[in-house]
């Protein structure tokens, strides 16, 4: 960022996105002028406007004044080459970079820069790190892909040398980062509209791990078979492992569940370093907390202090988030949209007292649904009642073959009581008539399925 004049303006195309808005907040607080454009006004964009950003709204919106003032234009991966603001910036010879490159430039300013990567668990683990580092009074800058109550949103701008951000592999964007610690939670097939398959994904994560060569560490979930492939023969990297077994550097012992939430001893190389009582459910969160302790130790935070911070974490919005009640049944919203995430969430629900587990799932993108079809079929075994709704297309168009009603039929053949209901209003009415006290109801997916909660929560 040192090459950008602070009297100049930085313009963000798609400024209202969860990541772009966070970057805009960082530079606003650092004294830069900020302008932007987005399709719709939101609570996020209103916050940016209150901080001094000049934003124009609407499909194909052009903030010509912002472009004219800009020394730099930052755009999202969703912005196409024919975007009118990109075209205008090129005509005027203004420097253009994508979001990932801009975030990488920010990371360069920090002595301790953590990139939290993985197919699953990025937001939760980044949030746990936020709690641990803030609890240790390190005043970190945090960029998280969700709303975290502790920091009042998705971004926290600190004044120290500590920076933590999610690092997404989609379009290889995390390869533009500059981490001193690369955390890899797991590696699976995903984003198959970009990657050709698991081999290319593994290769991408390996490049990410090697960004730390000679300058830092890789913290990796050692029990993941694909993470093992990522780090195969990587003897020239500094690698710290964690997992559920004692063969890893960090692992848990004496796991006990209290009302669905796990507590356990954290072991490091055979010695107990702390005890953690989590306020979020599931074995996957045991792993996330182990990763957090490992990263904190590398940054000079002792395990006991890290544990105290982790224990204050009660989840982010849209991650096992309690929304209220319906007919005496608790209603929970969750962002899970990959088969592994779905399995982990529904398995965690089994640790809570309940009668039936209801799941309303919205598949996310046609490409993911099509390529992981068999995995989706096997992901709902812990649901007593499953309702599939329409596919959230996001950046895609209907491919002519991938239909949620067919997925529901295949899941039903497996023995799960599954059905397809297209409209949210019809789903809400069905739930109101059939859900009983003592049940658990999940709305699940990365699209707009969360809106069902507005129709059912009492």
From TrEMBL:
UniProt xrefs under Gene3D superfamilies? Mur ligase, C-terminal domain, Mur-like, catalytic domain, NAD(P)-binding Rossmann-like Domain
Indicate where this protein resides in the cell: Cytoplasm
Provide the Mur ligase N-terminal catalytic domain boundaries: 9-110
Where is the Mur ligase C-terminal domain positioned along the sequence? Answer: 318-447
Its organism's taxonomic lineage begins at: Bacteria, Bacillati, Bacillota, Clostridia, Eubacteriales
Cellular component aspect of the GO annotation: cytoplasm
- Annotated HAMAP family: MurC
- List keywords of the entry alphabetically: ATP-binding, Cell cycle, Cell division, Cell shape, Cell wall biogenesis/degradation, Cytoplasm, Ligase, Nucleotide-binding, Peptidoglycan synthesis
Q: Can you name this protein?
A: UDP-N-acetylmuramate--L-alanine ligase
Does Cell wall biogenesis/degradation show up as a keyword for this record?
A: yes
* EC number annotated for this UniProt entry: 6.3.2.8
Listed pathway(s): Cell wall biogenesis; peptidoglycan biosynthesis
Mur ligase central domain: which residues?
116-296
Which is one Pfam family of this protein? Mur_ligase_M
Give the catalysed reaction(s), semicolon-separated: UDP-N-acetyl-alpha-D-muramate + L-alanine + ATP = UDP-N-acetyl-alpha-D-muramoyl-L-alanine + ADP + phosphate + H(+)
Q: Does the keyword Cell wall biogenesis/degradation apply?
A: yes
What this protein is reported to do is described as: Cell wall formation.
Residues holding ATP? 118-124
The family assignment reads: Belongs to the MurCDEF family.
Q: Which GO terms describe its biological process?
A: cell division; cell wall organization; peptidoglycan biosynthetic process; regulation of cell shape
Q: Name one GO molecular function term.
A: UDP-N-acetylmuramate-L-alanine ligase activity
**What PANTHER family is this protein classified in?**
UDP-N-ACETYLMURAMATE--L-ALANINE LIGASE, UDP-N-ACETYLMURAMATE--L-ALANINE LIGASE-RELATED
Q: Which gene encodes it?
A: murC
């Amino acid at each position: 960022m040192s090459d950008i004049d602070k009297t100049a303006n930085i313009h963000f195309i798609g400024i209202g996105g969860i990541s772009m808005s966070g970057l805009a907040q960082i530079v606003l607080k650092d004294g830069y002028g900020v302008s932007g454009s987005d399709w719709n006004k939101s609570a996020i964009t209103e916050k940016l406007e209150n901080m001094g950003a000049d934003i124009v709204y609407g499909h194909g919106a052009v903030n010509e004044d912002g472009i004219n003032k800009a020394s730099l234009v930052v755009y999202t991966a969703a912005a196409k080459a024919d975007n009118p603001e990109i075209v205008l910036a090129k005509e005027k010879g203004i420097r253009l970079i994508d979001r990932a490159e801009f975030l990488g430039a920010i990371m360069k300013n920090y002595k301790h820069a953590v990139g939290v990567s993985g197919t699953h668990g990025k937001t939760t683990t980044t949030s746990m790190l936020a709690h641990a580092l803030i609890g240790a009074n390190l005043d970190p800058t945090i960029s998280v892909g969700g709303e975290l109550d502790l920091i009042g949103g998705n971004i926290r701008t600190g004044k120290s040398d500590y920076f933590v951000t999610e690092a997404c592999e989609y379009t290889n964007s995390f390869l533009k980062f500059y981490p001193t610690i690369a955390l890899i939670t797991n590696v699976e097939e995903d984003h198959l509209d970009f990657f050709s398959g698991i081999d290319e994904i593994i290769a991408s994560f390996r490049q990410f791990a090697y960004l730390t060569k000679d300058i830092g560490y890789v913290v990796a979930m050692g029990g993941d078979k694909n993470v093992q492939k990522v780090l195969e023969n990587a003897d020239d990297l500094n690698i710290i492992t964690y997992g559920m077994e004692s063969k890893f550097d960090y692992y848990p012992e004496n796991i006990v569940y209290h009302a669905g939430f796990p507590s356990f001893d954290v072991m490091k190389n055979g010695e107990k370093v702390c005890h953690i009582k989590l306020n979020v459910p599931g074995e996957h969160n045991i792993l996330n907390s182990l990763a957090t302790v490992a990263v904190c130790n590398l940054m000079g935070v002792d395990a006991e202090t890290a544990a105290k911070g982790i224990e204050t974490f009660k989840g982010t919005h849209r991650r096992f988030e309690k929304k209220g009640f319906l007919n005496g049944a608790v209603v929970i919203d969750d962002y899970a949209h990959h088969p592994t995430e779905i399995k982990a969430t529904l398995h965690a629900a089994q640790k809570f007292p309940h009668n039936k587990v209801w799941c309303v799932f919205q598949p996310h993108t046609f490409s993911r649904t099509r390529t992981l079809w068999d995995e989706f079929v096997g992901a709902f075994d812990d649901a007593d009642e499953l309702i599939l709704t329409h596919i959230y297309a996001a950046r895609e168009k209907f491919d002519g073959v991938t239909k949620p009603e067919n997925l529901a039929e295949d899941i039903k053949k497996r023995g799960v009581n599954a059905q397809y209901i297209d409209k949210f209003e019809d789903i809400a009415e069905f739930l109101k008539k059939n859900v009983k006290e003592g049940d658990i109801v999940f709305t699940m997916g990365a699209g707009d399925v969360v809106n069902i909660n507005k129709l059912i929560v009492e």
